[in-house]
Design goal:
The protein is an alpha/beta fold. The chain is built from 7 helices and 8 strands. The protein has an 8-stranded mixed sheet with strand order 1-2-4-3-5-6-7-8, sandwiched between helices.
Length: 254
């Protein structure tokens, strides 16, 4: 099944995101509250239009689960996939200040076991809610780093692929990739000043040495966070091309 790019372009045009306007969005899915070791979390489930071909776990960026991830989940539902946006911060914890966002991400970067546990709990909740299997795991910025953490761990069951958009790429000491890791898509902006092309090259070398299946796409002139609708960093060309590449991965593995 092919996924026409014009559908993404039309959505972007309707929402005015190419002009950098504020995103107007009405969620059509449902918020889902769930418990992890006595802590409350709140994800978002968008079910596929028609029979689901599989599911996608969406991992949020550093400001927590908000309408950006809900919008992406809805877009995936329109393409025929159940989508669950996981919450890694806790119900009601959506930091506004930069220092608070840094603190939340640092908490998880410094406790990788908690990072993996919460991600796997979100995956389990998605399936408890009826999300179809197998699953592709994708994430943005901080969420992209979480995606790679899960990929390296090999702890997730029935995962058919991974995708990271302008995400953190560094591999912690003592971790590595395996040859049997599901295919990985890395979408990166060529003008990203937070994560360098040297970082991209290092990851490519690691994946190649491990014999992993991967694809790296670099979009010229695209800054960090190039997919974020309505922001001054949004680049429509890179967003559309990376989204089309992601739909191609879904089409291939689900």
């Amino acid at each position: 099944m092919s996924h026409p790019l014009y559908a993404t372009v039309t959505l972007a045009t309707i929402l005015g995101v190419a002009a950098g306007s504020t995103l107007a969005f009405e969620p059509t899915g449902q918020n889902v509250t769930y418990d992890v070791a006595g802590e409350a979390f709140e994800g978002y489930l968008a079910t596929a239009e028609g029979e689901a071909r599989g599911s996608v776990l969406v991992i949020h960026d550093w400001d927590g689960l908000d309408d950006y991830e809900r919008q992406r989940a809805n877009m995936l539902a329109k393409q025929g996939y159940d989508a669950f946006a996981v919450d890694l911060y806790g119900q009601g914890n959506r930091p506004d200040r930069i220092e608070d966002r840094k603190a939340e991400t640092a908490r998880l970067y410094e406790d990788r076991e908690r990072m993996r546990t919460l991600t796997l709990a979100g995956l389990a909740e998605a399936r408890d809610q009826g999300a179809a299997q197998p699953t592709v795991v994708m994430g943005y910025c901080f969420g992209g780093a979480v995606v790679l953490e899960l990929a390296r761990s090999g702890e997730a069951q029935d995962v058919a692929g991974y995708a990271t958009f302008h995400g953190g790429l560094a591999t912690p000491e003592g971790q590595s990739y395996n040859s049997d890791t599901a295919p990985i898509l890395i979408a990166h902006g060529g003008a990203d000043q937070s994560i360098s092309l040297d970082d991209v090259a290092s990851l490519g070398e690691e994946l190649e040495a491990a014999g992993a299946t991967y694809e790296i796409q670099i979009y010229s002139g695209a800054p960090h966070a190039f997919t974020v609708f309505g922001s001054d960093r949004y680049q429509q060309r890179a967003d559309e091309k990376s989204w089309a590449a992601f739909l191609g991965l879904l089409d291939e593995v689900l």
